[in-house]
Amino acid sequence: MTAPIQIGPGMFTVNSTADYTWDDFRPRVLSAVNALYEAHPKVAELQISNLTLRYIDAIDFDYMEHNAFTFIQENLKAQFSLSEELFSGTNVSNKPCGFTWQTSFQCERPLGRITLRFAAGQKQNIPSIIWETIVESAGDDIPKMPAEFEEWIDLAHDLTHNWFFKMIDGELLRRFKGV
């Protein structure tokens, strides 16, 4: 599968969607970054302001039947909710039909931050819970480019990979594996 590359003013992106594998994506992104540096007419003036590795995952979810907050707590190791007191006597359902929640944490390897974002959404027109795991380095946290990019992308991937499998461990992991 090819990882499409997008280039525009202030933007350089390597994407991979269906059939993603790290073994396929990693060499493509390394090759793309090397090609950018080799092709840039004024490489000494090339200033990278941000590096981001973003994974977007989705799981089908029936918002009318189930409570998304309960599902996330039981299956994705994250907890957020509203007090039942808010719903008492209001004729408002305590099952969210839409939501967005995001939090970020500083990380040291790679330097930067890791962000988790959960939201109601759709995947192939099916209601789903969408979650993103994002590692981002900006400003002084950006490694020396391009020399240290390979280490950065490996560390960012290791972190997202670690968090993903810790989050889905249990029933959700069995569901993904089809067991």
Question: Overview of this structure, please?
Answer:
The protein has 179 residues and is an alpha+beta fold. It has two domains: 1-47, no CATH class; 49-177, 2-Layer Sandwich (Alpha-D-Glucose-1,6-Bisphosphate, Chain A, domain 4). Helices cover 30% and strands 30% of the residues. It has four helices and six strands. The strands form two sheets. It has a four-stranded antiparallel sheet, covered by helices on one side. A hairpin with a 2-residue loop joins strand 4 (100-108) and strand 5. It is elongated and about 65 Å long. The two termini are 26 Å apart. The mean pLDDT is 92.
Secondary structure layout:
Blueprint: E1 5-8, E2 11-14, H1 22-39, E3 50-60, H2 68-75, E4 100-108, E5 111-123, E6 126-138, H3 149-168, H4 171-177
Antiparallel strand pairs: 1-2, 3-6, 4-5, 5-6
Helix pairs in contact: 1-3
Can you tell me the CATH class of the largest domain?
Alpha Beta
Percent in strands = 25-35%
How many helices? The count is 4
Described by its quaternary structure, the protein is single chain
Largest sheet properties:
4 strands, antiparallel
**Count of DSSP strands:** 6
* Low-pLDDT sequence parts: none
Radius of gyration: 19 Å
Strand order of the largest sheet: 3-6-5-4
Series of H and E elements: EEHEHEEEHH
